[in-house]
From TrEMBL, chains A, B:
Binds 1 pyruvoyl group covalently per subunit. It comes from the Eukaryota. This is S-adenosylmethionine decarboxylase proenzyme. PROSITE patterns: ADOMETDC. The active site is at S81 (schiff-base intermediate with substrate), C95 (proton donor), S239 (proton acceptor), H253 (proton acceptor). Belongs to the eukaryotic AdoMetDC family. One of its GO terms (biological process) is spermidine biosynthetic process. It comes from Patiria miniata. It is an enzyme of class 4 (lyase). GO terms for cellular component: cytosol. InterPro entries: AdoMetDC-like, S-AdoMet_decarboxylase_euk, S-AdoMet_deCO2ase_core, S-AdoMet_deCO2ase_CS. It holds the Pfam family SAM_decarbox.
Amino acid sequence: MELPGVVTEGSQLTHYEGTEKLLEIWFEPLRHRNGDIHGQGTPDLKVIPRERLVELMKLVHCEIVSEKCRDEHHAYVLSESSMFLSKERFILKTCGTTTLLSAIEPILKLAKDFCGFTFKTVFYSRKNFFRPELQEVPHRNFEDEVHYLDTLFDCGAAYMLGRINGDCWHLYTLDICNGQNQPDQTLEILMTQLDPSIMKHFKDTTGRKAADVTKASGIADLLPDCQIDDFLFEPCGYSMNGLLPKDGYMTIHVTPEEEYSYVSFETNIELEDYGDLVNKVLTTFNPGKCVMTLFASKTAKCGTSMKALSETFLDKYRRHDRQFSQFQTYDLTFATYIRDKKV
Amino acid sequence: MELPGVVTEGSQLTHYEGTEKLLEIWFEPLRHRNGDIHGQGTPDLKVIPRERLVELMKLVHCEIVSEKCRDEHHAYVLSESSMFLSKERFILKTCGTTTLLSAIEPILKLAKDFCGFTFKTVFYSRKNFFRPELQEVPHRNFEDEVHYLDTLFDCGAAYMLGRINGDCWHLYTLDICNGQNQPDQTLEILMTQLDPSIMKHFKDTTGRKAADVTKASGIADLLPDCQIDDFLFEPCGYSMNGLLPKDGYMTIHVTPEEEYSYVSFETNIELEDYGDLVNKVLTTFNPGKCVMTLFASKTAKCGTSMKALSETFLDKYRRHDRQFSQFQTYDLTFATYIRDKKV
């Protein structure tokens, strides 16, 4: 299979875009004006038949390569990143030159048809690509993505955090006051310029076992009580989903090639402070640069995201940017860091 | 004189871009490595000869229409907005289709030649234009402006606050850790969709006195101990500079036409909290929407800008967005508000 996102010049690989597009949609039952539930079906996204998910992945140009269930959620490792389904939450994260936005209309329809669901809130986000010109339309620039999303949603709000002439991160969400009523938090750490001695774990993978890499790299020790579904790509590359209790998850994706090395870490684990976890992740991967985002809903255990993202790692990293944004039912801290040359 | 920025279709005025471009440069004496002052000249921007400022304004496509001095600074009302010179600070704010960026290289050279100065920090900012396509290159989009600024400065950092698909505000500044070592703060309130009954003060100006408009509109009462230089344009439009003690200033510019009404308020007055002043400005102009920014340097009296911009006006206005950004020697609060329809 020729992987999307791989550019071949002659027979030489020249680029793989590890940078993911990330979609998270929260659903709720469609209701009549009097509050009665209107929709048909079982109000749980996990009832959507697997073959429908396979079709959905085809639209995005990727496929399911592994899957694991735990209590309240299903996690899928994809040929390009991951998908998570819990009762009311759908997460799709895809890298390469996948066309993630083409999944939105179909998933809204599947959720309506099988679960009687309508969307409650939506997040689409991504870091700036290494090579945007290699993406499919409308993913080549964020303005085009926003234009498409605005055709689907009435109250979309699009933001650019970080630097126009440097590392930045794009977000599209909905500006609605009843968007989220439960505790929720998401931490993402998007790392570049990774330590080649660490990236060796994820290269020359032929004949090796994913579980060994998960252990040797330190990934297995990042979070306790985590059921891991890990996958090694050939000749290089690594993905893992970790299922935590309730609908908790973590997910890591590694593009180890030095020219465009990229590692993403994401979790929704409920903590009061994320400083120690961030420190552990940075120590595990030792990136030259990273973009960090923490979303916290108004009822999240951690309080505001700025307070909860304590900078326990300033002995090794210098803060480049930090921005705190307040939305209707979430707040967000965005920050970028650069490894201190003295370390 | 045909004003730049005025589009005529047949003989009908169709648009005037009130939205200003704003440049603020702080200077300091050029020094040898041993700390000795290197530059020639008097270290005070006010020694730059007036005819050189007149030439500078020609490059930007505007001209000086009025001027006033107080102790430590000179304030100029321009055909398009304002200019302020104090010992080490240069501020140029121009609207219409002026080409503000073309003033940067010349002012850096004037400051070097006459004052032995080099720049300490730079801020270029503006709200999104009503009609960007009517601007001169490179002002049609912020990316082009950033590209130009990056040819002048090594460590520029460019940001977009607010919404890509709504009201936003652009900032270019320098990422240097010794950028500002003294207390400094700047509040801007950029208002649109203004109350037509208030805008009447600034229309049909022929034969009227600026001082009467300043008084009748309530502008005279906004800040105490303010020496005012006000100017009425014909057939409509208003500008004022207010000189406060030391190098304090306020400046207001009004484009009253209903189709593209715009009022800007800016001051560097030192306060502990800006809530009451903001409330007074909003009451004076009653805008439908506004963008607010407050910069505070690390040694500013008000502490962090977010704390200092208390929202005393949430009985009349709904917060649309709020973002807090931390730079090396300043922090910034950006917020947008919409007038509550119930009021």
